[in-house]
Amino acid sequence: MNLDGKSRARAVVLLSGGMDSCVCAALAARDYDAAAMHVMYGQRTEERERRAFEAVCEHLGLERRMVIRNEALRQIGGSALTDVSIAVPRAAGEFEGRDPEGAGGSRGPSTRAAKSAPRSLRMTDARGARSAALAQDDNQKNMGASPIENAAASNAGEGARATSEVPITYVPFRNAHFLAAAVSWAEVLGAEKIMIGAVEQDSSGYPDCRPAYYRAFNQVIRAGTREGKIEIVTPLIGMRKAEIVTLGLELGAPFHLTWSCYSREDRACGVCESCVLRLRAFQAAGARDPIAYVQEGAAGAEQRVPRSAHGKRGIHTGGLK
Questions:
Q1: Which CATH class is domain 10-310?
Q2: 33-40 and 65-69: which strand pairing?
Q3: 3-class SS of residue 213
Q4: 255-273: per-residue pLDDT in tens?
Q5: Contact at 8 Å (CB) between 254 and 22?
Q6: d(CA 76, CA 78)
Q7: What is the DSSP letter of 199?
Q8: CA–CA separation, 241 vs 274, rounded Å?
Q9: Higher pLDDT, 116 or 11
């Protein structure tokens, strides 16, 4: 319940156990009566991710949980995460030479981005409002078209990524499987929000992490559910990774319990694209990543992690409005 004694609205949060989903879960636990869902889909690190999910839930006090298994994605294959015959690539060559700020070089997320990182959620609210405004503008431009046609037009307006730019670690249409299960559970629970920690900015470039994708999926939910009131919320989608780290530290998100590595379950490899993006984010945020790595040569940082990253159960909300 809220401080005024009123029951909080329910939400389902998709929690993989990684850095971004952990911050998203911290937001869900703060703002809603949250239920956490985890999907095991035959990925290389599924057991380690499952342990991370359980640990994060315990830390945040998320008692209502569901773990489901999806057999289809591993059988379908086509990704280095689900097909052991496809090697997980090292980040060198694919990410170390790319500057997420778009200026060339190999710096990773800039310290300028970190310095402008959120001191409150007003920035994410602003991004959400901007996304809503874009969606409304799309609808106005396409009056008379069907909702799906409007979403398609919006997607075309954003510019679809070329197939060659999508890395081999992309699991074909994975998030649709996850969201479908979350929507089904939300209907049963009476939840009207589904939260997912999708990130578009300095990420791997997966096509199912774009704002247009979630706008289109919301149209499907409105058309295909009993009351049509469930909505997918993506609070991190417009943020840089360094900003997400800073927000997580402010929330007291348990980064020390998370797992992001694509290839190992004992210690993070430090060289796959997910590890490198994570290490660079902590470095740009001026914090040390608290998990153990086999090697940190790609982007390791030596700064100390603020104590809030290792707090006990509960969420620190100081400074957040």
A1: alpha beta
A2: parallel
A3: helix
A4: 999 999 999 999 999 999 9
A5: yes
A6: 7
A7: -
A8: 11
A9: 11
Name the pLDDT band for 149 (thresholds 50, 70, 90).
Answer: low
68 bridge partner residues:
39
Q: How far is CA 200 from CA 145, 181, 206, 240, 295, in A?
A: 27, 22, 8, 8, 26
Please tell me the predicted confidence (pLDDT) of residue 133: 43
pLDDT in tens, 24-51: 999 999 999 999 999 999 999 999 999 9
Identity (one letter) of the amino acid at 232? I
pLDDT in tens, 69-123: 999 999 999 999 999 999 999 985 444 433 333 322 333 333 333 334 343 343 3
Tokens of 42: 């035959």
Residue 279 and residue 19: Cα distance in Å, rounded? 11
Q: Residue 69: phi, psi to the nearest 5? A: -115, 130
Could you tell me where the beta strands, DSSP code E, fall in the chain? 10-14, 33-40, 65-69, 193-195, 231-233
The CA-atom distances, in angstroms, between 171 and each of 81, 208, 294 are 7, 10, 25
Specify whether the CB–CB gap between 89 and 272 falls below 8 A.
Answer: yes
What pTM was estimated for this model as a whole?
Answer: 0.75
Task: Supply 216's token pair.
Answer: 């289109």
Residues in the chain: 321
Q: CA–CA separation, 302 vs 282, rounded Å?
A: 10
